[in-house]
Amino acid sequence: MSRKAKLEYIWLDGYYPTQNMRSKTKIEDNFSGKLEDCPIWSFDGSSTKQAEGGSSDCLLKPVAIYPDPARKNGFLVMSEVLNPDGTPHETNSRATIDDEDEDFWFGFEQEYFIMDSKTQLPLGFPMGGYPGPQGMYYCSVGGRNTHGRDLVEEHADLCLEAGINFEGINQEVASGQWEFQIFAKGGKKAGDEVWVARYLLDRLTEKYGYYIEYHPKPVKGDWNGSGMHCNFSNTLLRTAGSKEIYDQVCEAFRPVTKEHIEVYGEYNDQRLTGKHETAAITDFSYGVSDRGASIRIPIITVEKGYKGWLEDRRPASNADPYKVAARIIKTVESVKIAVPA
């Protein structure tokens, strides 16, 4: 008797500027579990703003595979969208990443709010009012200030069981706001793992009566917004040993501030105000251990003699990690400095 496997193909749709995840299941007989044995598939692009009805087929090219811990004989198949002729679709941002040697390493800090589907408010927010002010929620413990831990813990377990390089969780500054961290070598792999982790989180909310809000400023007023801080390094940054080199790399971001902001997430102007641990969206700054700067130079990097990484604090929680990685790689590689021997 053949062993039937459930392959959940996941892709990004054509909505602009914020794409959504879509997925559907393909049943395969005697599946090996290997990426190379995942067939190219197709979908109706006219239903996802990726094609016209008269010529609606788009192709799904599997690019990463993970065991699906929530389904029997299940696999999660991250896929790129291709045109019928096999070229990358215009919505395929993964194909724009130029980092085949995986010299760039990325650590994404994904913040988000857990929302109650009935009240459409963040967990901990009462109907018609507000919880206590910010201060006691960050990394809190106990039912007074901590909301949603069951979902967060289950999500962490799912990601670890799926083999995602999941590095941690913590409650964030606002009530009902949380964060998880992903690390990977290579912009494509980092993006794959963030998107699959988001998929597992979104799917998990279906049984809790919650949904995840990735809007960077879902609660107006004196509440922190949500970002997706991007930690990054390449051989140059990991071996520089020089403040001057770090300054040169940071300065390379200044003239392309607009180009970065364009791919750092929709509604980010509501978050990047110069308050709540952000720099203003119109400014560019960098500094050691400065969480109010556009780019933070971590204190550990300095203590190790300027051998480490940088953190771009501007990407919003709803940003596409593929686009963020592609733009950072392009900017850093514009700095023409020989790597120290």
Q: Using only CA atoms, what is the Rg?
A: 21 Å
Query: Overall 3D geometry?
Result: globular
The percent of residues in helical segments reads: 10-25%
Task: Write down the CATH topology of the largest domain.
Answer: Creatine Kinase, Chain A, domain 2
- SSE-based structural type: alpha+beta
Low-confidence stretches: none
Whole-number average pLDDT? Answer: 95
The counted number of beta strands is 14
Structural notes for this entry:
- The chain folds into two domains: 4-92, Glutamine synthetase, N-terminal domain (Ubiquitin-like (UB roll)), CATH 3.10.20; 105-333, 2-Layer Sandwich (Creatine Kinase, Chain A, domain 2), CATH 3.30.590.
- 21% of the residues lie in helices and 26% in strands.
- The protein has seven helices and 14 strands.
- Strand 8 and strand 9 (177-185) form a beta hairpin.
- Helix 1 packs across helix 2 and helix 2 (187-205) packs antiparallel against helix 7.
- Its main location: cytoplasm.
Key structural traits:
341 residues, alpha+beta, Ubiquitin-like (UB roll), Creatine Kinase, Chain A, domain 2, 2 domains, 9-stranded mixed beta sheet, 5-stranded mixed beta sheet, 14 strands, 21% helix, globular
Summed up:
This protein has helices at 149-161, 187-205, 235-239, 243-253, 257-262, 299-303, 321-333, and strands at 4-12, 21-29, 41-44, 57-67, 74-82, 105-116, 121-122, 166-171, 177-185, 210-213, 228-233, 286-288, 295-297, 310-312. The chain is an alpha+beta fold.
Secondary-structure map:
Elements lengths: L3 E9 L8 E9 L11 E4 L12 E11 L6 E9 L22 E12 L4 E2 L26 H13 L4 E6 L5 E9 L1 H19 L4 E4 L14 E6 L1 H5 L3 H11 L3 H6 L23 E3 L6 E3 L1 H5 L6 E3 L8 H13 L8
Parallel strand pairs: 1-5, 12-13
Antiparallel strand pairs: 1-2, 3-4, 4-5, 6-7, 6-9, 6-10, 6-11, 8-9, 11-14, 13-14
